[in-house]
Specification:
Strand order of the largest sheet: 2-1-6-5-4-3
CATH topology of the largest domain: Nuclear Transport Factor 2, Chain: A
Number of strands: 14
Oligomer: single chain
Structural class: alpha+beta
Radius of gyration: 22 Å
Helix content: 10-25%
Length: about 240
Amino acid sequence: MKYFFSLIIVFALFNKLAAQENPLQEELSQLLKSNLDSWTSKDSVGFKQTLSEHYFATQSGFIGSKEQLLEIISQRPLSKMSDYSAELVTANDHIAYVFAKMVESSEAFEGSGVFCLASFQKENGAWKIAHSSFEIVPIWKVKKPEDDELELLEKNACDTESELKSKNANVETYIRFVNESDQAVEVYWIDYNGERKKYFDIEPGKKTEGGGTYVSHPWIIVNKQNECLGIYHPIDKPCLVRIR
């Protein structure tokens, strides 16, 4: 499923410009947004109006028919959707695919990111949603966090480098590097063999965009003289490295 969604994201990026120039982009994006808004607000009438006759949804092995989902909607807790964006992946006169990202939250839970791949088909001349596939993802994959929303990592001693290597890719997390020093620095990932792999050059006062890493993956910061400035170990929360 992750590989499938990765392909869809790449495809959507390549088609972004074409989608923006196509009025179908806006029409289907709004139809999908209306569908998701109806779901989160428990509006079964509005939800049903957006669906094709044989609609079904999938998520993590669950397959729900239109009838099942209309029964579930009245029982689920209220939630709200934010940071919605959508891209038209591909379309012809009768079938279309849209990839969307959003954050869903409620009083019961802090929130999570959601990826949705929806297929559309024409019924009696109108577009309807035929199938929706959902994947729950970390919020940072949908919404870029601010620095003050990230957990600050502690600096570890440089003399531990010889003992370090990445162990696995089991727990994904997010990391951003901010260079608050007066010198340019280089950022290296310590790979599965304990070798350095260069990822970034950061000038004074600059920072990386931030992105995915794993909890067992150490990172080392050095200056242009190859002097170690610190080693950092990501945690299972989105995290920040301040280089000083």
